[in-house]
Amino acid sequence: MVEEWVEQMNNQVNTLEKLEKYINVSDDEREAIETLKTKWGTSPYFASLMDKDDPNCPIRKQVIPSMKEQVNKYGMENYLIWKENRATEEVRPDSIARQYQDRIAFTVVDVCGIYCRHCFRKELVVDKDL
């Protein structure tokens, strides 16, 4: 018997077609999914918690990409280069990402159960050659 968490990971809701089984995708959500080049997805369980008809549902907003993610009013330009160890003299393994000087995040596995829109892992691309 497969563990429940393994089943959830194996059946990620990470395509428009799979998402449409859970919610009525809005035009804005559809545009972001089809346009943005960020990783997104969630477990079937978490998708089942989404309000089917409300694009403002907090659970939907946590998981589904938004065109607003392209706006960078206050952030560092090309911040992924810094987080991926490419623009720093600090030597650390790819499994450690630093977003702030006094904090780090460990990326223990290559996939997430839920790609939260506020998290760096929706964009993280580690170049194994560097």
Protein described:
The protein is built from six helices and two strands; from the N terminus they run ααααααββ. The chain has 130 residues and is of the alpha+beta class. It has two domains: 4-68, no CATH class; 79-122, no CATH class. A two-stranded antiparallel sheet has the order 1-2. The model is unreliable at 125-130 (pLDDT under 50).
Question: What is the compact description of this entry?
Answer:
By secondary structure, this protein is an alpha+beta fold. Helix content is 28%, strand content 7%. A two-stranded antiparallel ribbon has the order 1-2.
Q: List the helices and strands in order.
A: HHHHHHEE
Largest sheet: 2 strands, antiparallel
Please give the alpha-carbon distance between the first and last residues. 40 Å
Q: What's the rounded overall pLDDT mean?
A: 80
Apparent shape: flat
**Percentage of residues in DSSP E strands:** 5-15%
| Rg for CA atoms | 16 Å
- Total number of helical segments? 6
Q: How many independent structural domains?
A: 2
Strand order of the largest sheet: 1-2
The helix content is 25-40%
Any low-confidence stretches, pLDDT <50, length ≥5? 125-130
Task: Please tally the β strands and state the result.
Answer: 2
Secondary structure class reads alpha+beta
